[in-house]
Amino acid sequence: MNDELKKGKRVTINDIARISGYSKTAVSFAFNDPSRISVKACATIQRVAEELGYYPDPLARKFSLQRHESIGFLLPQHIHFSFQNPYIMQVVEGIGSVCQKYGNTLTLIPPLNESVLDAVRCAAVDGLITQGMSVEMEIVDSIKKRKLPFVTIDGIPSVDMPSINIDDKDAAYSIMRMVLERGHKRIAIIGLAEVSYEKHAPASIQRARLEGYLRALKEFDLDFSSPSVGLYTSETTLDEGKHMASMLLSGRFKPTCVVSMSDIVALGCILQFTEQGISVPEDISVVGFDNIVESSYILPSLTTIDQPAGEKGRRAAEMLFTLIRGEHLPQTHITIPHRIIERDSLSSIEEQNEN
Amino acid sequence: MNDELKKGKRVTINDIARISGYSKTAVSFAFNDPSRISVKACATIQRVAEELGYYPDPLARKFSLQRHESIGFLLPQHIHFSFQNPYIMQVVEGIGSVCQKYGNTLTLIPPLNESVLDAVRCAAVDGLITQGMSVEMEIVDSIKKRKLPFVTIDGIPSVDMPSINIDDKDAAYSIMRMVLERGHKRIAIIGLAEVSYEKHAPASIQRARLEGYLRALKEFDLDFSSPSVGLYTSETTLDEGKHMASMLLSGRFKPTCVVSMSDIVALGCILQFTEQGISVPEDISVVGFDNIVESSYILPSLTTIDQPAGEKGRRAAEMLFTLIRGEHLPQTHITIPHRIIERDSLSSIEEQNEN
DNA sequence: CTGAAAGCGCTTACAG
DNA sequence: CTGAAAGCGCTTACAG
Description:
- Chain A is an alpha/beta fold and 355 residues long.
- Chain A has three domains: 3-65, 434 Repressor (Amino-terminal Domain), CATH 1.10.260.40; 70-166 and 309-337, Rossmann fold (3-Layer(aba) Sandwich); 168-307, Response regulator (Rossmann fold, 3-Layer(aba) Sandwich).
- Chain A contains 15 helices and twelve strands.
- In chain A, the strands form three sheets. The first copy, chain A, has a six-stranded parallel beta sheet with strand order 2-1-3-4-5-11. In chain A, strands 7-6-8-9 form a four-stranded parallel beta sheet, with helices on both faces.
- In chain A, α9 (138-145) links the parallel β3 and β4 (150-153).
- In chain A, α2 (13-20) packs across α4, α3 (24-32) packs across α4 (39-52) and α10 packs parallel to α11 (205-219).
- The longest helix of chain A is centred in the N-terminal third of the chain and has 16 residues, at 86-101.
- The radius of gyration of chain A is 27 Å and the shape is elongated.
- Chains A and B meet through α5, α7, β2 and α8 of A and α5, α7, β2 and α8 of B.
- β2 of chain A pairs antiparallel with β2 (105-109) of chain B.
- The first copy, chain A, binds a DNA duplex (16 and 16 nucleotides) through residues 10, 12-14, 17, 22-26, 28-29, 32, 36-38, 41, 56-57, 59-66.
């Protein structure tokens, strides 16, 4: 009876069945639904299993059940960048807590051999959460083709693509409006580097926010073509934020306020400005977007838009599990409230000569 | 030929074989190794597959190959806590980048129905990385029973448990020694809350660090039973750090320096002290452990031990993949260098009356 | 270049 | 309470 142990082969349900004298069915029940067999049978089977060090193979079980018990999060940027952005980490945390609640695992999916499409094709998950996706993207077809339920965070809401967002346009409008009301006229806008799903991203929250900024700018007779408005783009990391700041400092365009689409980049700017002897907000103001915890304790503390990252993750995950259960979604597009957080990084500029 | 499409059933390799007129073998080759069939066969198969929207089922493929193409990270604390600790996030980032390199996915494994053991049993992974584990733990048996390769970070090195660490005892010694040399005599030590793997954790890095602290204390005629040394424990989150600080402030024991085993808790202390009008480091000093980025820009900046979290994750993952490939590990226990980072949160205390 | 067939290790409807 | 058998959808050694 110890022959197979020596072989070094995996102990399977067959071994337990043969040795215990019961059927595979019985063995399976012993592990999954003991009430369906006699106490004696169960005890015998458990004992044999214990002796042989038997472990039901999770992969075989999942295959048989056709369920992975895991949902995936498609990393929006290279994993290195994603993890440097506390906002994303909070979203992931929200997703993760719901996974834990439902006894699922959270699979972080980086591009497979540079290809997000392949990654989706191979992902061992029951559903997917993506960030910053819009329906026109190739990746969406890929997901649908696999008939994988999914919901997108910070994407462009669209039919049959459940989504969870804040009102980005309005949020952007209100913070830009505040900046302009404080008298700022030379503005550097730092947008988000494109999501890695696709080279040429179509509509995105980036666009929604730009629209919001633009609306405010227009109310002050400015727009993106004004010489006093500069548009930039940065990876969402502290280092890239610092980098942007020193570029700004060494360039010809001298903004009085930096309006960033992410807090982490705004923090980088504050740090770099300070480092180079430029005072924030006396010499230059900085405002952000996200309200990550760090923004409350950086000096000066950051004026920004609060958006509940953890809740975004949690609600997206709840929606996804509803979908996975095959139930109907009460609401396909959810918009969570945001609010402006006024702190110390934005100063007022007195009326004075331009330039 | 469209009958099965209407059924809503999944399109399988069988359908493609039947409809294309080739065998399952050929279909499989068309997707995995086209060189083994004729160009014509491949083209036909691809066309049919495309028409029917066929997608090889990843789960079936993994089952057949007996590989998950994913490694797991066993969350040391409740997911909510883990994600609030930038140190852990950096470790995860390191692991993740190696996963990406090898075309693997990273599975975050929370306890399953409160049970880490069940979680390990069910995890769909080829290997496991754990944090803060020692061999005596029940969970280790569970992992071994499943014959899952694993490596542990910040655990207690031991035979047949590959590990990656810094010299915690030495690191703790050197920072405590620095604190004492600065004249501090009333010290509050804040240790790490226990890992969730097990209720009564045996040896741990916590212990190693305590030994280091103790060695330094003894050199100054102090030890843990001295009335001027207080031992506390905290979850590694900013909020718990704040909480500890206000407890300290309202307690009878008035330390002149807080020595924390984690930066995030140290940051929480600094924030709370400042909030309550206590100046750091004038009124009270704080030192940490980890050197997370935030420590460099908090005010005052934090004196701490630098340990390369990302590298820990990366090297642990590299070891794990070596193990998964069935290769021999050149080195079972790796110790990465650490160093002390002196910044502004630790002040000197002049000689004066005690108490 | 091609295909029949065994195998991966479970679950579960069904009959007894 | 119990078991024989079909099924989950692939891969691949082997023979032709």
